[in-house]
Amino acid sequence: MGKKLRIGIIGTGGIAHAHMRSYLKMAETVEVVGGADIIPGKARAFFDEFGMPGAKAFERSADLLDMELDGVSICTYNSTHAECTLEALSAGLHVLCEKPMSVTLEEAVAMYRAAKSAGKILTIGFQPRYDPNMDLVREIVGSGTLGDIYYIQTGGGRRRGIPSGTFVQKKYAGVGALADIGCYSLDMVLSAIGYPKPLTVSAYASNRFGTNPKYFAGADKFDVDDFSVALIRLEGDIALDFRMSWAMHMDSMGDTMFFGTDAGLKITPAGVGTGWGGAWDGTIGPMFLYSDIKGQLCETSIPLRKPSDDRFFSKVQAFCNAIRTNGPAPIPTIQSVYNQAIVDGIYRSSQAGKEVEIALPEL
After folding, report:
1. Domains along the chain?
2. Exposure winner among 149, 192, 208, 336, fewest CB in 10 A?
3. Closest C-alpha to 358, from 240, 204, 199
4. In 20-119, where do the E strands start and end?
């Protein structure tokens, strides 16, 4: 089995608990030896909650990184993802960073370059990638059954689903629903078509629900988006229609659809009709293929695979396996950069009120 991987956790808030539970499932081969959180006593309380008196607790991530570690999970709020990742890579560690990759494209590029320079893994936390039905989507699209894909529609919406805390404050989150769940829906479709480069974005965003006390108790502190739509032009003459919402007077933002020259694929959102339904967070509903057979218009229902029991564990396990085998990042870092480039473009376009170009440097 070899020696155990030594892992640290930076940021010991809500999402760190999911990371810890996943690492504990691999206790025979992985040990979380320390953590850091800027709030005094929070890291210690986190380890005490899991009955881990031997784990070291710090208030400064630099102190944690002075330990003998193989890798870290970065579970801080969005606006510090880049800072913490760069610090960990500089210390020679592999990094699993929670989504979104960063707040800006410039930060994402710096993270990519730092990982490449250090020769270390940098993978971003898109756990829906590990669901077998997401694999099914990629297999169907990748098989060529659809022909040339020219238009894609994706997104997700919650009728009522505004989170709280750091999610809704720009100084912590950078952006709102766009980064919280929008990055998932972008990854779903872009990974299926090989992540072509994004070229331009024309977007609109608003926050009419989050800033209204009628719909959100923390309206006085809400200063991010709760709704956004965009048309993104991709390399290969593909148009991507994106829509995302944390709150709305509607049951769904629509299906995810791939339009091809030979066939079309429709993926309906799971949970439509519920307050939190319809967001692409890793579960999908019924799937249909539309095609012509002998001149007849045909609709084929595609049986779904059994959903993964724990996509989050699969994400963390893939990170640990990559460290142990000296393999590549489980989710290629360049793909996460392209994802962040679109998030950044949607934000910039919605602020400017016009179409913007996505200028990607050579990577």
Report:
1. 5-126+311-327 (3.40.50.720), 128-309+342-357 (3.30.360.10)
2. 208
3. 199
4. 30-36, 56-58, 71-74, 94-97
pLDDT of residue 281: 60
Cα(175)–Cα(168) distance, integer angstroms: 8
Alpha-carbon torsion, ordered 334, 346, 196, 268, to 10 deg: 110
pLDDT in tens, 34-43: 999 999 999 9
- According to the model, what pLDDT value does residue 111 have? 98
**Confidence bin at 271 (pLDDT 50/70/90):** confident
56-58/30-36 β-pairing = parallel
Burial class for 245, CB neighbours closer than 10 Å (0-12, 13-18, 19+): buried
Residue 120 DSSP label: -
In the structure, what pLDDT confidence band is assigned to residue 223 with cuts at 50, 70 and 90? very high
For position 291, what pLDDT does the model report? 97
Half-sphere exposure of 155 (CA within 13 A, CB side): 22
Burial class (CB in 10 A: 0-12, 13-18, 19+), 288: middle
What 3-state DSSP class applies to 284? Answer: strand
